[in-house]
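2024-03-11 09:14:02 DEBUG pipeline.ingest accepted 1 chain
2024-03-11 09:14:02 DEBUG pipeline.ingest length=257
2024-03-11 09:14:03 DEBUG pipeline.predict start
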Amino acid sequence: MITKTDYKTTSLVFLGFFLLIIVGNLMLASSFDFPDILRKSPDERFTLFQANQGTIVLAYYMMSVTSILQVYMAVAIYQITKKGRMLDLFAVTSGVLSGVFQMLGFFRWVILIPMLSNAYSTKEIASETIFFLEKFANTYMGMTVGEHLGTLFTGLWLIALGVVLIQNNAFDKKLAWLGLISGVALFIQSYESVNANALSFLGDISIALWALYVVWVLIMSIMLFQKKDETSPQTVHWGVWLLGLVLYLANVIPSFL
């Protein structure tokens, strides 16, 4: 039996994810020109990284924690919605893999890149070697593992979970559809790093696509906090939808200016 405490605990996990990813992104955008810096040369990244290393490492640690919370989110929502179907297992597996892949991508900035940055400053290793190692880490751990696989499985989790929630009368159908749409958007966006030349336009709208997911997390958190039992329908108040729209536009509009 799912209790009110279960719903509220899951809600707090979702809320923690939302707050950390918003604050972490704002810190990186202001101090590290994120996400555009990831497509610039290693020399530019190291220069900017060294100038703001304390803030950048803290921000990336916060982002790394969101990937850990992603695992908890997937498991917690599975416990609340599971009906013993293969779709439930597919959803929770995809959600856990999403968190693991994002974790591997984000944590390189917490330990590996500071080590390379220090070696670059002290000239312990030739700059060409450092740039190669950083480029390898950025290409493999960042683009391949974090961006492609992490985003791919986040999309698959949202698609599967969206279908699960659509079939569950105790959850708001509009929120279920928002999750499903967000999942399709992220699934498509994950292939930008696979073929950046042909799909470069996806990089230009990546913030708009990810913002859908982040707003969905917030609204899901609010709905779960209000939920009382497993059977009673729980709708999302129009004021919550308005809050979500305002936050979405606040994240997306600046990226296009």
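2024-03-11 09:14:41 DEBUG pipeline.report The chain has a mean pLDDT of 91.
2024-03-11 09:14:41 DEBUG pipeline.predict end
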